[in-house]
Queue: 2 jobs
Job 1
Amino acid sequence: MAGPHEIMGMARVLGIGTTEFLALYSDNGGTTLRSEEDGRCVFLTASGCRVHPRRPLVCRLYPLGRSNNERGEERFAVFPAQPDCEAVVGRDGTVESFLESQGVAPYLGWSRRYGELYRRMLGLLDGLDIQGKIDAPAADASAPEAGITETPAVEPSADRSPLSSWQDVDASLAEYCSAHGSAVPKEIDEAIALHLRAIEEWLDDLESRLTLPGDSEGDREP
Amino acid sequence: MGKQEDRKIVTRREVLKLAGTATAFCTSFGFLHGSQTGQVVQDKHFAEYKHLQARWQQAEFKWYKGNELLSSAPFPAKVLKHLQSDETAVIELKLFRTGQMFKNLGTIEAKH
């Protein structure tokens, strides 16, 4: 698993942009890192991880696993030791002290911020289903009629295309900054902060078009 | 009236982007879904499963002569899998000679 901030970090270590990174090193719609045929991570070499300084949260957490429910509550559990792993695994210490030693604080922070946006998206999608505010099929001639299931023509490399343009931080920030007449931030932290803000503004806009004064519960007909 | 209706319009493209982004974030960050009750059960199961996995991962049988270790062997994969599957799993250990049970050595419980 790799979020937009992690993809950006790894891309910078490799000296490439996020568009190229997603095309070369991601799978499953840009949500996971590619694996070799034997299951090894694409970045694992004989001398170690190629992107170690900016390795994703899931790698920093190992052997801990983190589960995160829809209310944003986090839980941690211990994964079984892998036979080939050279890491020293013990049960001394606390989850908190382990997290501190792995420098995961900014990663958890970013993950939580993206999680808040994710929950807003779910809320909007839930609302769409009930309120039926999607425009008529005629507005998009290429779209299938409602209720008709259409099997998309899948390209051989389709699973390497991002599911959403927001996953490509460089491209989405270039578009956002061009529209706002501002410069694209160079530093990762600033870029991610702007990326989060851009998504937030996008959701604000969607929300404003879906929430009208008469939409509140009290104003609805019984 | 017309203005208000205009504001309501959200294109299919936007809805697809919204759904695609939610799906991408869900997978990228490992956010779990389900009803509140289902989630609690899922989380509890996840934590228990990982705990059992870790507890029995390096289990071994060891044979001693006094204090001297004569031999050791890891648990067979099938036995390990059973003990790691469920907190209530139990394995009975029986010693056989020429096809006849010689001694019941007792039980191993996953929760221990």
Job 2
Amino acid sequence: MIRKILAALVALAAFAATSALAQATDISFWHSMTGINGDKLNDLAKRFNASQNRYKVVPVYKGGYADSMTAAIAAYRAGNAPAILQVFEVGTATMAAAKGAIVPVYKLMKDADEPFDPKAYLPAVSGYYSDPKGNMLSFPFNSSTVVFFINEDAFRKAGLDPSKAPKTWEEFIADADKLKAAGQDCVYTTSWLAWTHIENFSAWHNVPIATEENGMAGLGTRLEINSPLHVRQISMLADLAKKGEFTYVGKGSQGDGTFASGKCAMATLSIGASGLVAQQAKFKWSVHFLPYWADVKGAPQNSIIGGASLWVMGGKTPNVYKGVAEFFHFLSNPEVQMDWHTATGYLPITKAAYEMTKKSGFYEQHPGYEVAIKQLTYKPPTANSKGLRFGNYVQGRDIIEDEIEAALSGKMTAKAALDDAVTRVDELLRRFQAANK
Amino acid sequence: MALARTGMVENRPVGDFVAHLILIAGVVVVVFPLWVTFVASTLTFDQIVNVPMPLIPGTHGWQNYHHALVAGSERGSSAPVDRMLWNSLVVAVSVAAGKIAISIISAFAIVYFRFRLREFFFWTIFVTLMLPVEVRIIPTFKVIADLRLLDSYPGLILPLFASATATFLFRQFFMTIPDELVEAARIDGAGPMRFFWDVIVPLSKTHMAALFVILFIYGWNQYLWPLLVTTSESMYTVVIGIKRMIAGGDAATEWNIVMSTAMLALLPPALVVLFMQRWFVKGLIESEK
Amino acid sequence: MEKRVVFKSAWLPYALLAPQLAITVIFFFWPALQAVYYSFQVQDPFGLATHFVWFQNFTDLFHDPHYLASFRVTAVFSLLVAALGISISLLLATMADHVVRGALFYKTLLIWPYAVAPAIAGVLWAFLFAPTIGLVSYYLRRVGIDWNWRVNENQAMLMVVLAAAWKQISYNFLFFLAGLQSIPKSLVEAAAIDGAGPVRRFWTIVFPLLSPTTFFLLVVNIVYAFFDTFGVIDATTEGGPVESTQILVYKVYFDGVRAADIGGSSAQSVVLMFIVIALTVVQFRYIERRVQY
């Protein structure tokens, strides 16, 4: 009797095991991509799912970056987080400090026996998301960088040669004066004030944003954005604003639309804005390297990225992690990379993908993207130009921008504003440090 | 001779004219944003972005509404609006019906029974007036998350169910019901629940109608709570869906679709107010007494 | 106030009250207690590491100039919304009470904004005042006003005040109209016979008799401006620029949800709770008196 029961149980177990194997494992992937980007992401997931039958990546749009991160944290606390979460770059510190809640990518790939070579990635990209030892914590996915757009028609109208776009801030100021004198209403505008004029500015000039390798080497990091060079930059912006040569149009990406409408002669925007500009601009435009201060030794260095990366959440089965590893391997494929890059305007993140795209002639029609990549890889990153990692940086970046705005409107001197920013953001950094002891 | 209006004590046509003028100005100020929204919902994106936009309706209305209902916006969130309208409807009707049902039986219990802890329960309900959702955002969210009710209809509806104001309204009303009715019922041998269904409910019909209007609008217009509790596009209500359509910059938002969605979002409650105006006005004034 | 005749039952009243009490406990009291509990802690967003810090969150709050600024912003915002909403609706109600023809027409057109969600009111007004494409912005630029609320704090405040007050006009209007119509005509007629003109009659008789309604609406409008206008702010300025429109309730949301600062946000919630309690006490002490009439 017992033997019969045992036999039945074994058969049942075997049946259950095989049917579990026969079903594809779901891998939930929460993201914030909309429009064309969202469509392309769904397309990539479909391709991966069609290429094998063990795993099924299920992309779910969960709102903007801030909303989806909040939702994922709540889901994790309730025990049903997604397997993969797309997190914007300012959330990196929060994710990196959440040991136990996340699985670092290098560990994931190793445990799953997936081939993975961090050196295949553009150093500026992998550096942002790695620990000080060079181990990648999250998987770079959609990265952009700041570039310098000029309205060639406006330049010509002022008697300037658009092929000789200003390379240094000194030249920039001179050109701005000439444009204003020629009657240009909006001479210069920008999107993403802090990302451009503090974060990228520091990297491009190879000066630190903060101690401890901009926060990557430790939670005790302190901001250093009130150095004389930074004060010089913000003072210049305030000066331009007073002369009517810098038209600030608000936080975020407001500058994109303003430049695309043809109002402004020059703008520093994300390379991701070129899609909108290409669509709406009724004038000739071109993309160039960010200007730099000629007297700073070491400038220009390289710019840093913005955008988001993919994090792997903890608490899942090894089978799920194997699936995630395979999906990441798929995403690293140069051909998949090229597809994503050319469709969305985000930059290719591996050297192979860049080479492949170059060979396809894509950059002849879209020279702006190559400028962005060349700027990103101008020199191998130093400790100052790999990126940054600050806790509570969603608030932190806002605070920095608030202070700069106060300097722009003349309410405070640049030095006072930056000093204030350092004090306030350092407070947030200390709180983050205390909460993650 | 009692004159109907305070102002008509003297017959002053100038005063009358001035009054009409002020009222018309008031109506213009109040209706202008609606008019602009309506016009924008009938234009193409280019027509709107090309300032100043025209003030007479365009011809693109049908496409915009259709696009919004079926496909949502292209930039920012792309949840289709028809689903969002359905979610709003479910929430609004459930919240209104649920609140009325729960409050009327609570009020009935408090007024028509003597029992231990009655005062205590009354004050417990009263205290909820001092705890609007904005004051307990994070923990309420956590409770819903722990109950696995995120992104679900119960999660959207349940926390909005308890209402002190509806309970008080019914309580005040029950206080005015003559005791003779209760005595008559008891003489007839009817128990409390018979009394409830045969006497209380029919008498409360107008209050329930007025409350339904107010609570429907309350449920439809909920913003902060759905914002927290829904992360799946398929569970958005239309009021928060609009916010999520407003992508990045002014130039990037598809204003013609956003405005069509705005029209769709405010039409149902506006129609409810317009058609049930009398009950609504009565209920509003009553509920605050 | 008690009923003379009641029912007796050992279990029925409890059963009838159970649903409301259950919801009240699960979704009101339990979270409120948790808010108090969290306000004494500092946690990381994932809840992996929590530290008890007693009152430090509160001391940090009250030393934080930006939190204190939020108080000022909220006070300015609610007073402006109440003042604008009440004065305009009082004017309109007085005129509506005056006319005979078209009263229903005006009333219908003036009360429909009650149906509009504050968030949508915000979107409508933000559309009119959008710096680049807004209709009103265009005409403002034509007369030389450089309108950009994303950069100018006062303009941002003006815009949200307009949106919030616009929405409340209908609510206030209804109450004023009801109040006006309950004023005994004999009083007004007597004054007219004594030779008082309409303006004089208004200020010396009508307005004082309306004061209960006015006071009631003042409290209601302030509570509205404190809490219900979250949607207006979130759908338009999101507290900016430079936190100039960051009312208290918005800061609670932003710090707790966006910035994942659970401890700080919970401490702010506790402070808000005290404010609500104070406002509710004022409102109910007042209403109790009305009920006695």
